[in-house]
Inverse folding.
């Protein structure tokens, strides 16, 4: 089985994440998409994150009606900060018959050379890339790499930061979130402070 790993803090998960995950599930040749909730991205401030299990719950609520998209807490069990290479090695040990690939935006692809042991990741795993509005793929050092697959996916410019900021400002961001995610956030007064 070919699994696409879509990593993120998902703080919170929003419809843009779902549009991208569903597009890859339906059009990339991957059998399933695992939404890997990252407890601590080494490039982000952990203090700004909602509790790990609340974010996992939001991903569960958002994906429960999508049979090809699954929430994953695999990084909760690994040492922090989380490095993609370590997660991939752990998953390969746990599921030796699965083929794991990464899903990332082109902005992440352009900074891949800064990742811990990125050469090993590229050697052993395929990477599926979705576009951003400011396309830099023409100048990317990875554009001709056979392990990189650029997918013609919808360009979605919604950010979790925008959503959090506007919930705090009492703006209506309900259309940007799956219904059950919005209900959970509203019921639990999340992101309001």
């Amino acid at each position: 089985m070919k699994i696409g790993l879509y990593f993120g803090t998902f703080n919170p998960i929003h419809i843009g994440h779902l549009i991208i995950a569903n597009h890859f599930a339906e059009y990339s040749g991957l059998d399933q998409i695992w939404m890997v909730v990252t407890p601590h991205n080494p490039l982000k401030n952990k203090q700004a994150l909602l509790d790990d299990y609340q974010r996992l719950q939001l991903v569960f609520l958002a994906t429960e009606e999508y049979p090809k998209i699954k929430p994953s807490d695999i990084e909760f069990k690994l040492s922090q900060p989380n490095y993609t290479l370590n997660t991939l090695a752990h998953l390969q040990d746990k599921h030796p018959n699965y083929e794991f690939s990464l899903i990332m935006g082109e902005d992440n692809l352009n900074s891949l050379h800064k990742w811990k042991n990125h050469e090993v990741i590229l050697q052993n795993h395929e990477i599926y890339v979705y576009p951003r509005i400011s396309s830099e793929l023409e100048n990317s050092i990875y554009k001709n790499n056979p392990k990189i697959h650029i997918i013609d996916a919808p360009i979605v410019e919604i950010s979790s930061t925008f959503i959090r900021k506007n919930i705090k400002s009492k703006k209506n961001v309900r259309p940007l979130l799956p219904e059950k995610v919005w209900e959970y956030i509203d019921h639990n007064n999340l992101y309001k402070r």
